[in-house]
Design a protein that fits this description.
The complex is a heterodimer.
Chain A (H helix, E strand, L loop, with lengths): L1 H13 L20 H36 L1 E2 L9 E2 L3 H7 L2 H34 L4 H13 L2 H11 L20 H28 L4 H9 L4 H29 L3 H6 L9 H11 L3 H25 L15
Antiparallel strand pairs in A: 1-2
Chain B lengths: L1 H5 L5 H23 L8 E6 L5 H12 L4 E6 L4 H13 L7 E5 L3 H6 L8 H8 L4 H6 L1 E2 L2 E2 L2 E6 L2 E5 L10 H13 L5 E3 L6 H13 L16 H15 L12 H9 L3 E6 L3 H8 L1 H6 E4 L15 E7 L6 H11 L2 H11 L14 H4 L3 H8 L11 H12 L7 H16 L7
Parallel strand pairs in B: 1-2, 1-3, 8-9
Antiparallel strand pairs in B: 3-11, 4-5, 6-11, 7-9, 7-10
The chains are: A mainly alpha, B alpha/beta.
């Protein structure tokens, strides 16, 4: 926070001369602020204090509380046996087959769905961007799957794939596709992709709008084919938007829960890590083990975000272009 | 919510109004939770699963209460898992809106251990125990205390085609042999029962263990045992699954599927709850005439089976604001008269022995003597607060039954069960 403000003040001070002094880090050599600036900054803090407090109450407290729970043997069924066990729960979970199976399933779902959604979403975005006739209609209808509540959509998929009630089940011969692991996972991924491709397309369309028409015209003047214009001009310009879309979807996909909950309830080793945490917390009443899983999921999500922001240089949402490092 | 937030701080009066509205919106649900008593008569909230005619029982008890309390029947979801999840979530949050809880027999110990149930003591306890069958009563106890009153019970019976099998088999080995002979003669031969990966498979295994004289956990519920009887039960289950006498979908069959399989005429034997009989009489009266019932087959020749009991108990929530009235209301809902009514109208077997002798029971329950015989010498599922977890790991390990390797499967189940008892188990 403070460095950002400093940069801002530095730019301010540079004024019309255009000579920008290197922004200084840390508290040493901080330029003295005028009375007005200080009042302004105090007002800034006061204005964001309520939001910060709410964030602390609804985010920081639960996270810290679950970390604290994860360090205890705490089973609601045995309230008298509550005790501090250090990292024992982490050992239990990380040496457990169910956990790693669920982790594998989650990773598989994340990678496959995000990859497919990116390709389909890009196609849809281009269509929505280029449509001339009935643009509103095209955009609205493309967004319908995203507008349907996931659980409702998941129930439709479930009935569609259940022999006897569904029209899709008989398509692939006899048998119930949702009761076998491979086909069940495929259906879960299909439901996820069907549902969130429009969201991906929406994010990518925002990126497409950034591509200057002149640039594309210039490229075609130079003899670039449509494919070359797409890969050489559009994609590089869109890269920040693509990375943000990927980050959002990866974080979302890693926490997949509702589709699995409705479609298979985790039978035949189709549980995701979120399903596993739910089963241990809510059904098993084991707050210790369940919180350990929640903390591990939190860490995994944090690592994904870190990789995207630091390694791929995704601009954190809300930050300026500087974070983007195009 | 969106409306109040949109008005900015630039218009102070409207902003204040918006803030007040927001606060009211947030508090309104809390206020709604607080109310619920009308006209000074305490409302007793009964949370119970779907039972078609229970409202009549409730109305009758309300009339008898003479204004002392009024029971309101709140319907829990149909699936057992969802019922339990709703109850435990609200109890963990100390919800005072629930008074009488309809508990599956396997949850009573868990809820009691968690400190969510009030103990039945003194005259109330004596009334709940009077005339009640020992097996169902045992499911309502935890550490020697009574935490619920048994409302109804249930046991599975052996249903067989009397036109194909003159004498019902006494043991599993005998039943498998009979089925193989029938198959050799080209007649309907299959043994239909529940083998999917769910509670029903655990019920089957538990019955086999008890019939073989084995134990799953020790008596005080602290240690996983899985003794010789438990291993013998695994052998029987594996032999059954691999003898070629089951349906092809055995490892995916639950109660209603088993009923339909047998009704279709493919089976010579069916092991299932009593509800299959009235259903069969309605769907295929000709077939029903050929079907008879007998005690569930045992494991060792000469020693009769011990069959796992199901059913529901009524417990009083510790967070109830009207515990006295709740105890009285629960006692009324499960008294002999109402148990008889529910047995005849909803098909749920009573827990009070004398009810079976009532004349009206003969028509609704032609198989009542066999049921009573099994109920007097029953098996209960492991009575441990960790039962849900134990059941989950057992059904996962037992499925599919054809790939059981008795000694090794027993070792795996022993370890997983011990982990569950020590709160170290991870549920799949």
């Amino acid at each position: 926070m403070s460095t950002e403000t400093e940069t801002a003040t530095a730019v301010d001070r540079a004024g019309p001369t255009g000579a920008v002094p290197a922004p200084r880090r840390g508290r040493v050599g901080r330029p003295t602020l005028s009375e007005g600036k200080r009042a302004e900054r105090r007002l800034g803090w006061l204005l964001c204090a309520p939001a910060a407090l709410v964030m602390l109450a609804v985010t920081a407290y639960p996270i810290l509380y679950s970390v604290w729970l994860s360090l205890q043997r705490f089973d609601l069924k045995f309230p008298d046996e509550r005790e501090f066990v250090g990292l024992a729960n982490y050992v239990t979970v990380l040496t457990n087959d169910y956990w790693w199976t669920a982790f594998g399933v989650t990773m598989l779902i994340t990678v496959v769905t995000v990859a497919v959604e990116l390709v389909l979403g890009m196609g849809l975005a281009v269509v929505m961007h280029r449509t001339i006739v009935g643009r509103g209609l095209v955009r609205t209808s493309a967004l319908i799957p995203y507008g349907i509540v996931t659980v409702v959509a998941a129930f439709s998929w479930r009935y569609a794939w259940t022999p006897g009630t569904g029209y899709l089940a008989t398509l692939f011969g006899e048998g119930a596709p949702l009761t076998e692991r491979a086909s069940a996972l495929a259906i879960i991924m299909l439901a996820e992709i069907w549902k969130t491709t429009p969201f991906m397309a929406l994010l990518l369309m925002a990126g497409l709008a950034l591509v200057p028409e002149d640039l594309l015209k210039a490229a075609s003047m130079d003899g670039a084919t449509a494919w070359q214009r797409f890969t050489r001009v559009m994609l590089p310009v869109m890269k920040p938007a693509i990375l943000v879309a990927l980050l959002f979807r990866t974080l979302d996909a890693f926490r997949v829960f509702d589709n699995i909950f409705v479609l298979t309830a985790g039978a035949n080793e189709t549980s995701s890590v979120s399903m596993l945490a739910y089963n241990n917390l809510i059904r098993g009443l084991n707050l210790g083990i369940g919180s350990t899983m929640s903390v591990l999921i939190f860490l995994a999500v944090a690592i994904i975000a870190f990789v995207f922001v630091k390694l791929f240089g995704t601009a954190a949402p809300g930050s300026t272009d500087e974070g983007g490092r195009r | 919510m969106a409306e109040p937030e949109r008005s900015g701080p630039g218009r102070p009066p409207r902003f204040r109004l918006a803030a007040a509205l927001t606060v009211l919106t947030l508090l309104a649900p809390l206020a709604a939770c607080g109310s619920g008593d009308d006209g000074g008569i305490p409302t007793i909230n009964l949370y119970y699963t779907t039972e078609q005619n229970i409202q009549k029982v409730v109305d009758d008890c309300n009339t008898k209460a003479g204004g002392r309390y009024r029971i309101a029947y709140r319907v829990l979801p149909r699936a057992a898992d969802e019922q339990r999840v709703q109850l435990v979530r609200r109890l963990a949050a100390e919800d005072s809106g629930m008074d009488i809880l309809g508990l599956d027999v396997t949850w009573t110990q868990e809820f009691a251990s968690a400190g969510w149930l009030l103990e039945w003591t003194g005259e109330r306890r004596a009334e709940a125990e009077r005339g009640t069958l020992a097996g169902p009563l045992e499911t309502a106890r935890y550490e020697g205390k009574l935490y619920a009153a048994p409302k109804n019970t249930n046991v599975q019976l052996l249903w067989y085609r009397a036109d194909l099998v003159p004498q019902p088999p006494g043991t599993w080995d005998e039943m498998i042999r009979m089925a193989q002979e029938l198959r050799g003669r080209g007649q309907p031969y299959r043994v239909v029962t529940m083998g999917a990966q769910y509670e029903g498979l655990v019920v089957l295994y538990n019955t086999l263990v008890a019939s073989a004289g084995g134990k799953i956990i020790n008596d005080d519920g602290s240690r996983a045992v899985f003794d010789d009887g438990a291993v013998r039960a695994l052998e029987v289950l594996r032999n059954f699954a691999t003898a070629g006498v089951t349906t092809s979908s055995f490892s995916n069959t639950i109660e209603d599927q088993a009923r339909l399989d047998f009704q279709s005429g493919a089976g010579a034997f069916q092991l299932n709850w009593p509800f299959v009989y009235p259903a069969m009489q309605e769907a295929d009266p000709e077939l029903a005439k050929k079907v008879k019932w007998a005690r569930y087959p045992g494991v060792h020749p000469g020693s009769p089976s011990k069959v796992t009991i199901g059913g529901f108990n009524l417990g009083i929530s510790r967070y109830s604001r009207h515990p006295d009235e709740s105890f009285d209301a629960a006692a009324c809902l499960r008294d002999a008269e109402h148990q008889k009514f529910s047995a005849i109208n909803d098909g749920v077997p009573p827990t009070i022995e004398s009810v079976y002798a009532e004349p009206e029971m003969a028509e609704a329950y032609p198989m009542r003597d066999t049921i009573l015989e099994e109920l007097k010498d029953p098996a209960t599922r492991p009575r441990s607060p960790a039962y849900q977890n134990i059941s989950t790991v057992l059904s996962a390990t037992l499925s599919p039954p054809s790939s059981i390797d008795p000694e090794r499967t027993a070792d795996r189940m022993r370890k997983a069960t011990q982990d569950a008892l020590d709160s170290k188990g991870v549920l799949p």
